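User: Quick one: structure for sequence A, then sequence B.

Assistant: Sequence A:
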Amino acid sequence: MADAASAPSAAAGIAALRVQVCYALPDEAWIEKLALPAGSTIAQALGASGLGVRFPELQSAIEAGDARVGIFGKVKTPDTVLRDGDRIEVYRPLQADPKETRRRRAKHKQQAEGNR
């Protein structure tokens, strides 16, 4: 049985993780496939992906660890350790508050029905 001191070196010898980094815009989707060492984090994957170079407006958030990210739709922190096959999603800020948008639609629908 391996002791705790040898565990990190054993993990480093494991084959690379295959992950994807995804960023969706209204008119385009960007996906980068990566092979990273076992034990890599979301922050390391973002750095290796070139996302900040392709989308400079994200660079400062990525470097500061403030980018909103998730794996398969679940919000995660940049220090989350990756597993083979993970899809890292970088989320854009919302353009409008969903609750406010629903209220406006409901009000518009009420007004339209009242004018019949």
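Sequence B:
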Amino acid sequence: MHCPFCRHDDTKVSDSRVADDGTAIRRRRLCPACERKFTTVEQVVLTVVKRSGVVEPFSREKVISGVRKACQGRPVSEAQLAALGQQVEDQLRASGKAEIASDQVGIAILGPLASLDSIAYLRFASVYKNYESVDDFITEIKAMRRNADSFDVAVPATPEPRKAAVGSAQQPLISTP
């Protein structure tokens, strides 16, 4: 580590502490050349490997942005979205891997999102799991009902088909003389 003051190439660690709930290490360093102290923070960089092979740093804001689209028009606050983003990042970091496949990020989002809002979950899952028909939605809703104990919110009910009233006739909008 270079000293930020005199650029000396060898510094000594005088103190190390865990920071940010164990996700980083804060180190106090001393430069033997200029005798000035400075602090460094070391953190494991979590990277995402996309299907195309492109590697990019994990972005909590990107997770929140994707979930925000699924939650559009739903009673979900920004604070809840931020908490979900933090929960997903914590879960991915807990895996102990520095590189995470993009599909693992999607899987990590699905659980907390299902607990947050079942409709937003279905919206997100429809894109993430690449639904191709209404049958895919029905299958997912049935799976949600089977696992209803793990959800904190109500699972959407399947709408009853509408039945025509017997003996009702439509009145014409324009009457003729």
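The longest helix spans residues 78-94. The longest strand covers residues 12-19.

User: Thanks, that's what I needed.
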